[in-house]
Prior knowledge:
By secondary structure, the chain is α/β, with parallel strands linked by helices. Helix 1 packs across helix 2. Strands 3-2-1-4 form a four-stranded parallel β-sheet. The protein has helices at about 10-20, 30-50, 65-95, 115-135, 135-140, 155-165, and strands at about 5-10, 55-60, 140-145, 175. The relative contact order is 0.22. The longest helix is centred in the middle third of the chain and has 27 residues, at about 65-95. The protein contains six helices and four strands, in the order E-H-H-E-H-H-H-E-H-E.
Amino acid sequence: xxxxxxxxxxxxxxxxxxxxxxxxxxxxxxxxxxxxxxxxxxxxxxxxxxxxxxxxxxxxxxxxxxxxxxxxxxxxxxxxxxxxxxxxxxxxxxxxxxxxxxxxxxxxxxxxxxxxxxxxxxxxxxxxxxxxxxxxxxxxxxxxxxxxxxxxxxxxxxxxxxxxxxxxxxxxxxxxxx
Length: 178
């Protein structure tokens, strides 16, 4: 099907491209360059080969979550750190060599971290480059909401859609892909 608007909650893409195999603690982490290139390729494939939006591309990265969600996220982050320690211990018990300094800490994918600031800057650069060079990207309006904007990606997307509907900017026949 053809879609007018494409909405990407970028955190799923960031997670998949920054640490594709959390179970293998012995494998060296991807370099930052490999992570960024993976994100670029992932997004570009969705935009130019799979969906090919006609009007809007909205990319939303999770910002600071509402207060009610913070405790849940904190608990998830502590659990992820504990799981990583458990996997490291199990690997060592099997006699495997584990270089903890080479592992990617998924807690870096948290609003306000240095890593997320780099991700945002790199994604903005990528969008500018694609809009200059790629005809598929040139025909759409690209909106980017980074980690510095409060709210989870999916909430930012829905807020944008609600606002556009209130303004009458979205017709009843507008097609959306999330």
